[in-house]
Amino acid sequence: MSVGVFLVLLLGYFGATPGFLRVENLRDILINAAPLIIAACGMTMVIVAGMIDISAGSALAVCAVVAGLTAKSGAALPFVVLLPILTGALIGAVNGWLVAAARIPAIIVTLGMMSVLRGGVIWWTRGEWIGNLPASFSAVGRGEVAGVPVPVLVATSVVLATALLLSRTPLGRHVYAVGGNPLAAARMGIPVGRVLWLVFVMHGALLGLSALVYASRFSVIQSNAGAGFELLTISAVVVGGVNIFGGQGTVWGSAIGGLLLQVISTGLIFRRVSEYWAPSVQGALVLLAVVADALRTRRAGR
Amino acid sequence: MKRLAVRREAVLVVLLLVEMVVMQALSPLFLTPDNLIEVVRQSAEIGLIALAMTLVIITAGIDLSVGSIVGLSVITMGMLWEDARLPLSVAVPLALFAGALMGGFNGALVTVVGIPPLIVTLATMAGFRGIALGMSQARSIRNFPEGFLWLGQGYVGGVPVQVWILAAAALLFHLALTRTAWGRALLSIGANEAATRLSGVPVNRVKIQVYVLSGFMSALAAVVYAAHVSVAKPDAGLGFELTAITAVVLGGTAVSGGEGGVLGTLIALLMVGFLRSGLTLARVPAEAQDMMVGLLLILVVAVDRWSRRSGRE
Prior knowledge:
The structure holds 2 protein chains of 2 kinds.
Chain A lengths: L1 H14 L7 H26 L7 H17 L4 H24 L5 H20 L9 H8 L1 E2 L2 E2 H19 L1 H11 L1 H6 L4 H24 L13 H11 L11 H20 L7 H24 L1
Antiparallel strand pairs in A: 1-2
Chain B lengths: L1 H25 L6 H26 L7 H17 L5 H26 L3 H20 L9 H8 L1 E2 L2 E2 H19 L1 H11 L1 H6 L4 H27 L10 H11 L11 H20 L4 H27 L1
Antiparallel strand pairs in B: 1-2
């Protein structure tokens, strides 16, 4: 839980800046972190299963465009919510099939899919922005239920649901087993291929949900939406202490990791650090987290 | 193992020839010497990176930071020249050294601290890019002297300078990989690192050398790229890592390490270059080309996996 301690320290550091600890600002941080946290929950499952997905940013763009176009077509709200999620699940199903049935390494599959999806979305939208989104659509991203912003509500539910799934269900245990040692998992009779496929489908569906929350916050959707989002998501998961080799980690850690990245990005703005430096801070943070983890594991191993 | 690699390269050459015939049918401008030379010129910078990436992947590693090393080395060179008033004959070697240093940083984290290369280079990909943008405040540096631009725009014997550089580097890499103990050590580390360590190979030192080489080649590509496009920008090299990795994997180097070669990488690089050039001539938009390159990557690896599995059974 070193990531939690780190978060508290950072809040203390940035808290010294006037205005940072105001309720409105903390609330904005939570809302802005929501899409990242939702996606990080899915990515946690993927990485715990020993896989990786670097097409997540491109998939987010596809789902965001689907959400925007569905909303603009005047479809009822349930469709606007369901279609991007289904699109994400479909993308996940293709990735999962290529990984599980065709047995292509996940990094290759998702590297290829990254180009296919990004190229596809720019081709489809002709690189134009999707604007004039109906007010009902924005209500998803800017609405509130009992004073709690909808994105925060959605993110919290996703964290709870995926945490329960991973820790309390047979499927969750299978995900850890497959990521820890696929050969042993197969010997124990776990359907490794099916577990991997399901993980990618669920991760895809969560990306669709993340895209919906993300897209409905703004008045336009750009075809370059989500560029670099895969790195941000993987960073959140790694900072959250999930073992990159698979088999270990929780969505709690990843959720705090996602929050941490958002706190830093907002905090740097408050500290008036040029935004150009932001990627270095993110990179340094990831390194710090994994180096600390590596040193601790080594000490524990001796 | 050797026969498999040769067959793989033969398949690639056949694919390349088929592709050229199809492209020629699509556009009569395709098979002109000018166009072919232009394609190779466009591929040269990523080619330099892909050569080193081949070695990295052969050791079962990966380097996602190469594109950011391009950005940070090129802006280092530009600022040393413009702000520190150093001549380019000093700034260029210093930029190459900076690239090697960045690679060394990656290598040290991978070997000494023991962090997976995917994570190390994912982090330094963001880190190096941020430093490049932050220290330059995202400005571009222009007005380089003619002598420098020659590196990216000049010709020797009718062939662009950077193509000569790529050819020389490819020959060196090929010989190093296939004819030296160091090359055999790389293949052996990728196949079984623990066993290689037990057999007395200084695994950590060799792996650091590979990442240093990757950083150095990225910086070399950065210098050539700046001369080619006449500008040094901190966002140079964005996405280069993906094209380079695609070429390496398409060229038959296994991502799990232990097998592969630079010839396959070069052929695959040309395949992608010709594909893009032909499609551009046929007025296919760039984003549709991206889709096709992505599909090509998945398809080639799928066929490869399938043929190996059926060959084993």
